[in-house]
Design a protein that fits this description.
disordered N terminus; 16 helices; mainly alpha; about 575 residues; two-stranded antiparallel ribbon
Length: about 575
């Protein structure tokens, strides 16, 4: 990634500067705030800013690549249990704070034109948290008021249907209270663009096979989801949103038309949401490495320049694993770093990344005789979201925003719902638009390498395949497979990397000072090496285990022990049905 454009955001400064001073007046936000808190716009704003920080907590989801078929890492047996914390989400402490604001601010003395957007933002944040709980666990207790110790705290779970209705009600009320679009210093706040885009995501999940296993693709929820996602797309189009013309700029610039909801990072107040120190090769990083390393399967998922799959005999471009980087979809170059490829980390001009044992610095190599065999190295790295100009000593100062929702996701959600409601032409147009932006050639038939006359099932798969490439390392892939009830794609999977085994015909133990000198001067090119596809080297599990019971995760046992009225999910020792039946 090239140099980030730095912009000052007033909202962020309020969040990290003014709030630090004002929160003192709010007392301990874990308790009930002092009288008068919601009579003052400044303390009310500070309270709301704290809710943003407690709700939109995640930066880049670097742990998700290994869970799916994107990055190195193997999920073995027993990954999720009822008593561990893996894949559990129970944010009721934050929900209580949101409920405090929603109870007290309407009665406060803050002017209506100031407090109403705050109320709308808080309703969105509550919906955001409830939605995440629902797609993790199914129905959960709906709590709309701040509970006190004198209340009956042993609440039961609401049905999944009731939870979806509650989420959608909050979103509709939020949309009526927030402005159409925040820009400039207010970028990062919840506006109608965010609410409508997120509502489309919620309804897509509600229609999905995850929640409708008996009738996965013909249930009535798909029509509602289509209407919502088309409305979101139309609204966004009318208000200046759209695809950036250059895919590589999506993560290199801030505040552009593709970002709908961004978690904003600004050096030095808030940094390293990308986890760059864990993503870079260790020779130009510090602390750790091994995150977001593409597998060979992920690399092969990118199409050729004409949109055809690698190895497709109808492609205009011949594919050879020995030159796998040639003539690929431009997103490949913008996302993947391969042995001998240019990767100008630490601002080192002309720097090439090597991964062959004996040529690469040992901490970067993928080989049989090196350190790090527990880290599932793949022979590939990524440049997505990486600030290449940062020196290794400052690698944690990455301040690339996390795009929680971007326009491309809305397009994919719209395409999915269009396909499932008998509108394949609309779905196809989305894929064409995505591929055109990616620099894929239209071809003589104008299909951008896509098959003409796809069936509904073929279009569904084409959408998933395209989204896998477009959103690599953005935390979408695992959840997409899960909501389609396609964890069978992962279950039993073995993962592979690409190993450079020779340079100019020489193996690692035959390398001479001549080759090492060329490597130090970055003169060795990718085509100077010989490659083999090799299963990831590890002392841990080698095969993914993704059972069907992972379509819904269990409530953590400690929560059930505290509240015997909470029923556990089916498949996890209980009888609660988390689906929509």
């Amino acid at each position: 990634m090239k140099t980030i454009q730095y912009i000052s955001y007033l909202f962020l400064f309020i969040l990290f500067s003014a709030c630090g001073k004002v929160v003192d007046k709010v007392d301990n936000l874990g308790n009930y705030p002092a009288a008068g808190t919601f009579d003052d716009p400044l303390t009310s704003g500070a309270f709301l800013s704290n809710l943003y920080g407690s709700t939109l907590t995640s930066g880049w989801p670097t742990g998700m690549a290994g869970i799916a078929d994107e990055g190195g890492g193997i999920i073995g047996d027993g990954w999720v249990t009822t008593d561990n914390s893996t894949m559990k989400f129970w944010p009721y402490a934050t929900i209580r704070k949101i409920n405090i604001l929603l109870k007290e601010l309407p009665a406060g003395k803050v002017a209506a034109d100031v407090k109403n957007p705050m109320i709308g933002q808080a309703k969105f944040l509550r919906a955001f948290l409830y939605f995440k709980m629902v797609y993790y666990h199914g129905g959960v207790p709906i709590i709309e008021v701040p509970q006190e110790l004198t209340d009956d705290l042993k609440v039961s779970r609401n049905s999944t249907s009731e939870c979806f209705n509650f989420i959608l009600k909050d979103l509709d009320e939020a949309a009526a209270l927030v402005p159409k679009k925040y820009t400039g210093n207010d970028r990062g706040r919840i506006d109608q663009a965010v609410v409508l885009a997120f509502k489309g995501r919620v309804l897509l999940y509600k229609a999905s096979p995850q929640f409708n296993p008996v009738n996965p693709y013909d249930n009535a929820n798909w029509a509602t989801a289509y209407t919502a996602n088309k409305a979101a797309k139309d609204f966004l189009d009318a208000n200046g949103y759209g695809l950036l013309e250059d895919f590589s700029k999506v993560f290199e610039t801030k505040g552009h038309k593709e970002n709908i909801l961004s978690v904003i990072y600004v050096n030095p107040a808030k940094t390293n949401g990308r986890g760059e120190d864990g993503v870079r090769p260790l020779s130009e990083s510090k602390n750790a490495t091994g995150l977001d390393q593409p597998t060979w399967g992920m690399a092969e998922a990118f199409p050729m320049k004409d949109g055809k799959k690698p190895g497709d005999p109808t492609s205009a471009y011949t594919y050879n694993a020995q030159t796998f980087w040639l003539n690929r979809d431009l997103r490949f170059d913008a996302t993947v770093v391969w042995n001998g490829g240019i990767y100008e980390l630490s601002g080192i001009k002309g720097r090439r990344q090597y991964t062959m044992s004996g040529i690469a610095k040992s901490m970067d190599a993928f080989g049989f005789i090196i350190q790090g065999e527990n880290h599932y190295r793949t022979g590939l790295y990524t440049r997505k979201g990486i600030m290449e100009e940062l020196p290794s000593t400052q690698v944690t100062l990455n301040d690339v925003d996390w795009p929680e929702i971007r326009y491309a996701e809305v397009l994919f959600n719209y395409a999915e719902t269009a396909n499932e409601t008998g509108k394949p032409a609309e779905a196809l147009q989305v894929l064409k638009d995505i591929r055109k932006r990616a620099g894929i050639e239209a071809g003589g038939d104008g299909m951008y390498g896509l098959k003409a006359g796809m069936t509904r099932a073929e279009m569904r798969q084409a959408i998933l395949d395209e989204k896998r490439v477009e959103f690599m390392f953005e935390g979408q892939r695992f959840w997409d497979l899960r909501r389609h009830r396609m964890l069978n794609v992962l279950n039993g999977m073995r993962k592979y990397g690409v190993m450079a085994t020779k340079v100019n015909g020489l193996t690692y133990d035959q390398v001479t000072p001549v080759e090492i000198g060329k490597a130090n001067r970055f003169e060795l090119l990718p085509q100077d090496f010989t490659y083999e596809v090799v299963e990831l080297i590890t002392n841990g599990p080698k095969q993914m285990v993704m059972p069907d019971k992972y379509y819904f995760f269990p409530i953590q046992l400690s929560n059930i022990n505290q509240n015997p009225n909470l029923k556990q999910n089916k498949d996890w020792g209980g009888d609660f049905d988390p689906t929509l039946h």
